[in-house]
Structures are given as structure tokens and as C-alpha cells.
Amino acid sequence: MANLSDDPSFPFYVASRLFSQAYREPLDAIGLTYPQYLVMLVLWEKDGQMVSQIGQKLQLDSGTLTPLLKRLEASNLIKRVRSEEDERKVVIELTYPGSSLQSKAAKVAEKADEFFNNWEEKDVSQLKAIMKKLLAEFNPS
Amino acid sequence: MANLSDDPSFPFYVASRLFSQAYREPLDAIGLTYPQYLVMLVLWEKDGQMVSQIGQKLQLDSGTLTPLLKRLEASNLIKRVRSEEDERKVVIELTYPGSSLQSKAAKVAEKADEFFNNWEEKDVSQLKAIMKKLLAEFNPS
DNA sequence: ATAAATTGAATTGCAAACAATTTAAATAAA
DNA sequence: TTTATTTAAATTGTTTGCAATTCAATTTAT
């Protein structure tokens, strides 16, 4: 019979929320939500990406990203620029404040990092490897 | 510098959504959402729990649970009964349809179970053990 | 060239998640 | 006892997440 402690998804559901709660305080301090932070991470790595490129990296669709990006634009962290060659595409560009925010975001993952620093290295690398395998192989089709 | 592939939370964020997407189809078939399914799992294990007891097991507060439980009640799967001894408490009781749904929910986690069945047993038990450790030790304070 | 299909975002609508506040009830303290 | 505190849910407001649909622009096929 189905049972919470046997359910393979539940630990991930809880873990995901625990992390986003741990990030909340430092993110509040710089005016970002957790998914907004992920979008900024993607843009700090490479500025000027299309909505769909960001979506591919975060596994989010335009239904989630469009309003989120509009909020980041309202916060003056990004600009949404419609491409000239292909008017369907919207390119996301960091503003100066958006770019500058990167250094202030350095401490966001601190609590999570510290937590794993207290683990034995073999447990950390095991977890990393297994999560990588999980994400690479699991498809919800 | 902060970077998506270094972020310790991101794999859990994605995994959580992948699982809930994998559950969507079988859950749709029985008229439940993923968090509603979790609540039903908790109730199938033990009927007649308080909102706060359910919240403790799922790590959810009344702001999430109250409207969710009202929807389950509207679907005629549960009843919300205010306790007589202590009028602050609301006890959640399964209806007959709610109770009966348990057998139909047997296949919900099938895809996830099959996925892990194709893994080597040592990887599965490793992942389980590490997730257990993570959830027991990580606190987002 | 024109119609059909595809693509990229945006929109709509619903259900979480969660902080913050409120309400009511029960308990403790003065 | 009356006041203050604590507790359990509910409410309010904002942001996600996602299915489904729409809209416009671009490609492909006829």
C-alpha cells in the first residue's frame, strides 16, 4: 500500500523546499526570490540569452519565465529586448545593477555550502554523483 | 563566483519538479494534485489527524494546508471537523470515497519506482540513506 | 507565392508555497 | 478573576509552476 515513507519523491520535495527556505534570508537581503536567483545565475554565466535558453537550463517554460522576467525587469536588473532578426525571440540582457548584483550574491548559498562542508567528502561526492545520474536519466514521460 | 552548476540546491529543485511531473498523469486520473496526494498518503496511514499534525509530517503550514484541505473536502474525499474539546483544532477525516481512493492510488509512484528498480540496489540504498541524513540534519534557520 | 506547419513568447486559469497578519480559543500569570 | 500569553487555523497578498491556449513571426511545403 502506498505510504509516505516509501514514496521515492517525497524526500526531494522536502529537500527542495528546505533549500529554498535556507536561501530566503540572504536572497531577501538582495531583493530576489529563489527562482529569480536561478535566472540571475544563468545570466551571470552568459549575458544575452533567449527566454527559451534560460528555460532549457532551468527546466522552466515561458508560462513561468515571462512573468518572472517582467518582475526582474521591473526591479531594473534585466532588460527584455525583442530580437531584430527574429521578432519572436526575446533576449534577456543584464543591466548594470543586475550585473553588479553578482558579487552581493556570493553568500546566498553559504548555509548550504557550510552544511555540506561538515559532511565527509565521500558522502558529498556520492550525493552529487547520484543526483547527476538521477537528473540525467529520469524522465517524467 | 556563484554558478548554477556549483549550486547545491539546484539538483533538488529540478528533481522535485521532475517527480511531481512524473506523478501528474496517474494523479490526474484519480483527480489529485501532487501535494493533495501527499496529504492523502498521510491520512491513509492514520485517519483523523489535526491540520497541524499533517503539516508537521509534510512540513507545510496552515497557509498551504487550509485551502488545499478545503479543495479535498469540496472533492468529497475528506471532512474537516472542528474538535469539540478544543475548538481551535480541526480534525481531518476520510470520507468513504477518500478511503476508497487508496487502492486506486497504488500505481501513482509506479514510474518512479520502476526507474529506481533499474538502478543497482547499492545506488538506491545509498541515495535513500543520504537523503535521510540530509533531511534529518539540514535546517534552514 | 500562398497555404500549412512550426516556433518563441505571452496569456489565462488554477493550485501550491509561504510570509505576515488576524481571529478565536485555551492556558498561564497577575 | 481579569489580563496576558500561547496555540491552532484561517486569511491576505505575492510569486511560482504548469497545462492549455493564443498570437505573431518564421519556415516549410505545395
Counted up, domains of chain A total 1
Structural class of chain A: mainly alpha
* Major sheet description of chain A: 3 strands, antiparallel
- CATH fold topology of chain A: Arc Repressor Mutant, subunit A
**What is Rg of chain A?**
18 Å
Helix content estimate of chain A: 55-70%
Map the helices and strands.
The structure is a homodimer of 141-residue chains.
Chain A (H helix, E strand, L loop, with lengths): L9 H20 L4 H12 L3 E2 H8 L3 H13 L3 E5 L7 E5 L1 H9 L5 H8 L3 H17 L4
Antiparallel strand pairs in A: 1-3, 2-3
Chain A binds a DNA duplex (30 and 30 nucleotides) through helix 1, helix 2 and helix 4.
Can you summarize this structure?
With 141 residues, the first copy, chain A, is mostly helical. Chain A has helices spanning 10-29, 34-45, 51-58, 62-74, 96-104, 110-117, 121-137; strands at residues 49-50, 78-82, 90-94. Chain A has a 3-stranded antiparallel β-sheet.
